Amino acid sequence: GVDPARSMIVLNQMDRSAEIAADKISGFLRQEVSIEIPFDLMAFTALNRGSTLITLDPRRVTITRSLLDLVNLVREKFEQVRVEDDTIAESPTKRTGLFGLLGGNS
Length: 106
What we know:
5 helices, single chain, two-stranded parallel sheet, elongated
């Protein structure tokens, strides 16, 4: 399975009028939705033109803010997992069997 501490659910192109809401998805997957990126048709225009949303239409702050929030969430999650991995790597491994009983660590 997927470790919820090492993953996040991102709902992309969410339409507020969609029949399936974030809370239903969270309940089904048994994991909280980390972020919702709203649907914005202008995103496709920006992609096709190779432009940013904010330069095409400064009123697109909602989707731009959501995308920046996503970047921050991914960065924070990556840092958290990296710290956990470093902590695990630094902890000594405990030996099992006869050598473990005798107190040997290496």
